[in-house]
Amino acid sequence: MKKLLLLGGARYILPVIKAAHDIGAYVITCDYLPDNIAHKYSDEYWNISIIDKDAVLKAAQENRIDGIMSFACDPGVVTAAYVAEKMGLPSCGPYESVCILQNKAKFRKFLSEHGFNVPCAKGYTSADDAVKDISMFHWPVIVKPTDSAGSKGVTRVDSPDKLRESIEYALQFSHSDEFIIEDFLEKKGHSSDTDSFSVNGELKFVSYSAQRFDEDCENPYTPSAYTWPATISDEHQAELTGEIGRLLRLLKMKTSIYNIETRECTDGKAYIMECSPRGGGNRLAEMLRYATGEDLVKASVCAALGEPVKVEQKPYNGYWAEIILHSKKPGIFERIYISEELTGEIIETDLWVQPGDYVGGFSGANKAIGTLVLRYESREVMEKEICMINDMIRVVLK
User: Fold this and answer.
1) Once rounded to an integer, what is the mean pLDDT over residues 161-165?
2) Which residues form the domain of 142?
């Protein structure tokens, strides 16, 4: 029985645990939060911080694991690559390449050096140094931690006098005390955040979504819904697919799932914003399994354990929407209201709270309280309802 070590314990890895058990693997989960839900479903739990690379390596060596993965858990991706390289285990790619992909400042620098479309951007550890570069940027700008996911610590800054405040906020969410400032790119339509997959470094499955936001919640940069297919033009999708493939080859990546953010902008260009060698949060790989039938979760498990992997591009079976259930403000959860006028077919409701539970305001992806999966027969109907989704589906507080 092969041993698979999963870094993190959030509910997003529950389908990973199931997929591993389905092929007969022994699953170990690891983090410093013993009450995390995934530990109830794994075969073993280690109480070790997933950003402590050497501590995880020591435990992995002592227990002779066969594979390691950080799925939908951004802080563990670098550690997983480090342990895999040190132990000669199957990996998503070279450790140094993963470090580039996982650090927003290093990633922007790499893109710029290799001729990719990239906004003006620079990473810092000092607010004073950043203030000196005010004239370098084209305002407004985005300030965010270099090593955080889920839109935590991200703010748009419209004028230089607000820069220090945003830097202090970003640093609250950075493990490395580093932040990045970059030009704000005005998107055309909706940006994309969804999963893709490479086999032996070649992009075999690529997807693009339409990422939606709730401007009335605490953090307007936290995704509140996704739809497939994307609104990005076919021409720019083809260009992005070629550029993503080139990126993976340059970095000598191997067999892996990726959470990739892309954007079509009003300047006529398309940009790769992020490319992390992990499954995305918000159940994105599960949504692609619904929409295409291609199981990227199982493929990720097989890749981590060195088992054969076959992934192929498949079309969408209809039009799909995922609603990230959330409360606009803190309070006591009572119920979910779903309008009878909703015409989309509800495929699945996954609610993570009970009546009487306290819920926080939607300040980041970690404040979601569930998901709703919808399928439509036409893009037109889906777009119409998604534009009114805050009226058709909402959290009711006591």
Assistant:
1) 93
2) 120-183
